[in-house]
Amino acid sequence: MSASPFGAPLFAARIKAAPEDFVVEEIATEPATGQGEHLQLWIEKRGHATTDIVQRLCRWANVAPVAIGYAGLKDKQAVTRQRFTVHLPKRVSPPLDTLEAEGLRVVAHDWHARKLPRGGLAGNAFTITLRELRGPGGDVPDDALRAAIEVRLQSIADRGVPNRFGVQRFGRFGDNVGQARRMFAGAKVGRETRSMLLSAARSELFNRVLDTRVADGSWERAIDGEVFRLDGRKSVFGPEPLTPELEARVAAFDLHPTGPLWGRGALRTTGSANALESTVAADEAALCKGLEEAGLSQERRALRVRAEGLAWTWPADDALELRFRLPPGCYATAVLAGLCGETGEGAGDALPDGD
Questions:
Q1: How many whole angstroms separate alpha carbon 251 and alpha carbon 245?
Q2: Phi-psi category of residue 25: left, alpha or beta, with phi > 0 → left and psi -120 to 50 → alpha
């Protein structure tokens, strides 16, 4: 388990005791236009993978998978609401009630001008209920522990959390990075598996850089040679000399320190940031070389993320409900890790190559 900057886990708990304990709703970047050849569907699913819904839509509309658009993958063992588009050039769709099934409901529909692209979302809103909370001694949290948990939650709200890739990136048995090493050594894999393994290798390198900066306390502040990401945008800039103004913008969450999503080309960082990242790269030379030879380019990802609007309630003495929003490509497990450690559950979007 990676170290948390907030200290040891405060409690143990059950996550996803039922799908309704993990609710994710996609935040759209724009409303449907009401015009065009793409039928946009808001679908609520329970116990279905996103890819299962794509296959069902193909059968329902008698179209190929290329006609289906969706912004990101959502959890199977959860209640999730997300958009899909179906390209129907004649603007005629089969009856919507023939699409619905157990655990699948069409919440809303409208016509849209474009196919929904991967990554075409503003983020995700989470409502997560943790049940059967137990303190270090195995007891139901008392007033003192609940107060400590609320102090920790406020710290998470104020500071943000390390923007780690969740364990979902690394496969059900945690072997995706091992498979990536074998692939880079010459093992043959299918196209979809290859994409998954490249993502796992890239995520492993990023997490190692992030873990190093959590250990030295620099995950939430700028260091010499830093490359910055603008909050809420994909734009990055730097490095440039550190100034009080830049440090103040980082403290105000206007800018974030970044880590590498590995690929071809030189690291953009200089100074201390470059030395740290180069050390990780040297320790994992085979992964770096494999990603470079696969044709991926160097990119950057924010080292921290804020749980926007973080709020909580206590539905019972041993249950805690959390509500927050995350940007695309970020994981709810990053928030939970600050409370009760890495759970192995609860991905946000799992985009192919990060955020």
A1: 10
A2: beta
- Residue 351 predicted with pLDDT over 50: no
Torsion of CA 206, 282, 266, 242, to 10 degrees: 70
Residue 323, beta-bridge partner list: 127, 311
Alpha helices in the chain (DSSP H): 50-61, 143-159, 176-184, 191-215, 244-251, 271-283, 285-293, 332-340
Short-list 262, 164, 277, CA closest to 223: 277
Question: Do 176 and 170 touch, CB atoms closer than 8 A?
Answer: yes
User: Coil, strand or helix: which one is 250?
Assistant: helix
DSSP 3-state assignment of 294?
A: coil
Note whether 37 and 87 are within 8 A (CB).
yes
Residues in the chain: 355
pTM above 0.85, yes or no: yes
Which are the catalytic amino acids?
75
Residues whose CB is less than 8 angstroms from the CB of residue 232 and which lie 6 or more positions away in sequence, other chains included: 327
pLDDT tens digits, residue range 67-100? 999 999 898 999 999 999 999 999 999 999 999 9
pLDDT, tens digit, 9 for 90 and up, residues 292-348 = 999 999 999 999 999 999 999 999 999 999 999 999 999 999 999 999 976 533 333
Q: Is 354 in contact with 203 (CB distance < 8 Å)?
A: yes
DSSP 289: H
CA dihedral over 80, 81, 83, 84, signed as positive or negative? positive
Residues 252-263 have a mean pLDDT of: 97
